[in-house]
Amino acid sequence: MTSTAPRITVSPAHRYGLATGRRWPVDVKPAPDELLSSWLHRLAHANGAPPRYFGAVLGAAGGAWSAQLDRHLPDAVRRLLLDHTSICPEEIDGLCLANSPLSIVRLRLRTRPQDAGTSTAQSSWLQFCPTCLREDAVPYFRRSWTLATRVSCFRHGCRLRDRCPSCGQGLAPFKRDRLVPQQYCAFCDAHLAKPTGPASLGARRLERLIDDLLRLDSAGRAQGDRKSLAARLMRYPVPFGPATSTIPFLSHRVRYDFFRRLSEQQIEARDPTERGPLTLWFRLARTAENHNGLVRMLTDQLSETAGLGLASSSREPDLAALLRTAIRLREDRSTPVTTRAVSYTSGASEDPARPASASCSGSGRSRKDVNPKAAKNASVVTKV
Fold first, then answer.
1. How would you classify the pairing of strands 238-240 and 243-245?
2. DSSP H/E element including 245
3. Closest by alpha carbon to 43, among 35, 15, 79, 124?
4. Which of 194, 260, 287, 346 has the most CB atoms around it within 10 Å of its CB?
């Protein structure tokens, strides 16, 4: 039976075009450390377009269109986003994973993401912290969660998750054909914020050491540098069951179990051919045992030399804070005493991003007040 009803067409009125211009009706600002695909899903939802169809608006083909854009953003799509949103070029580049020296250690995107649900040993393209999603005013997915070397949340200390807690499928918000927020499973509609248990202390120490070393090693390196730590980690597969694989291809469950057992010295080479690839992992595990204590000791030494006093915070020591203190100390040594005294008394930091604990402002101490013995010891530390 053929319908004789007139076909309905919808088009924007002329006055609507004058009011909105080229911009889409609702503008969405990226959150700190947000992943491009996460921002695109939120942008689509805010403008009333299910993610599955929003990919067609952008001219992005494929079922996993948004995850593919994370890794490669075509110029045409980039220009379209810049034209229709208020995002600036620097912001959109900061959301992407491309051109990063750490790309090699990020979780792999499979041709069919749903295949990750068929085997709990295979990686899913994205993992997440359920507690972060539950606490976010507007839940979003972080770029740092794509690193295969991450197995826990640095903020909450709980284990990450790379699958729906109800149906066990991998994340696929790009498949949504309804207006449902991305923190709900695309297969069973269950909320992804079901809590996970705390990560073991050994696993957290090991991943924090690897994270600090990767950040240090990747500074100034070009993508694809075969001498980088990220490239070396990719050359050393880890055992799981009777097989071996590099960590970007493994699920969170397998990676976390490997980190935990490695930190607890429960892993041994099964034969001489396996010991070679495991050597780097064994060294990292041994170093992680004293990593926090070493970082705290160096931070206290440099802070005392710079006139900041000992660190009183109970937070886990961060190598980045140590480096900021060392850089400030080095700047002080190359600055005339008179100039430095003015900056100390002004109470303002030259770097607005530098925390107060890493600044010498307001200390009231001149160069002559520093303990000469401590300064000598610090000079040895900074050379190391």
1. antiparallel
2. strand 243-245
3. 35
4. 260
